[in-house]
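To illustrate the input format used throughout this study, we show a single complete record. The first block contains the structure-token representation of the backbone; no residue identities are included at this stage. The design step must infer an amino acid for every position from geometry alone.
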């Protein structure tokens, strides 16, 4: 379970947000606007972000299913510097779900950057916003545990059905037996046989040796 849970781990400690980041230089307000499809309009979000004082706004029309495919979102995270505030209209523009939100907040905090959502009164520079992070952390941990538990149950169920896990064999038993027959005729070298099956010479010899061992044990 611990190995599975580590796949969903997040790198932000609650104590990191006990106090806000202290800006060392001038603060810049950076906006990020996103809509899910090309048919939707970004103008409303951009207008709100400008009214909030954003000097630079990153925008894109992308699904929020994953942060990985959002190029402008990545650019925004790369652009912000210590003391800056990243502003969005709603938290669902910034992240999808509590785990994603928690991870993205960790990135911002590691850079000394705060987050504000204009329509949800979420602001990590305020005591109320920092208190909300405790709730987010709890929910993120709950989702991590739930995913890990479901994955563990899925693996147990799959094994019970006879599903095998691990790397797919490079050669089947039938191929190894056929290779042994080809080797026995002496018409092809081991390298030629390996090339025929699309494997390396050492792989071929290892599989054939294992096959001989199994046959010997059976006899």
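Output of the design step:
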């Amino acid at each position: 379970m611990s190995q599975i849970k580590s796949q969903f781990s997040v790198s932000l400690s609650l104590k990191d947000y006990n106090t806000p980041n202290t800006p060392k230089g001038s603060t810049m307000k950076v906006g990020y606007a996103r809509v899910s499809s090309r048919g939707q309009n970004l103008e409303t979000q951009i207008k709100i972000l400008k009214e909030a004082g954003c000097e630079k706004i990153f925008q894109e029309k992308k699904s929020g299913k994953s942060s990985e495919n959002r190029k402008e979102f990545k650019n925004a995270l790369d652009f912000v510097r210590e003391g800056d505030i990243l502003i969005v209209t709603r938290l669902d523009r910034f992240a999808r779900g509590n785990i994603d939100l928690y991870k993205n907040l960790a990135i911002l905090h590691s850079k000394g950057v705060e987050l504000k959502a204009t329509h949800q009164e979420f602001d990590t520079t305020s005591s109320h916003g920092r208190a909300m992070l405790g709730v987010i952390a709890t929910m993120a941990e709950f989702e991590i545990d739930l995913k890990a538990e479901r994955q563990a149950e899925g693996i147990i169920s799959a094994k019970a059905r006879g599903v095998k896990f691990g790397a797919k064999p490079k050669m089947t038993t039938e191929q190894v037996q056929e290779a042994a027959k080809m080797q026995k005729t002496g018409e092809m070298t081991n390298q030629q046989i390996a090339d025929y099956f699309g494997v390396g010479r050492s792989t071929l010899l290892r599989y054939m040796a294992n096959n001989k061992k199994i046959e010997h044990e059976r006899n």
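Structural context for interpreting the output: The beta strands are 29-35, 56-61, 85-88, 114-117, 122-123. Confidence is low (pLDDT under 50) at residues 1-15.
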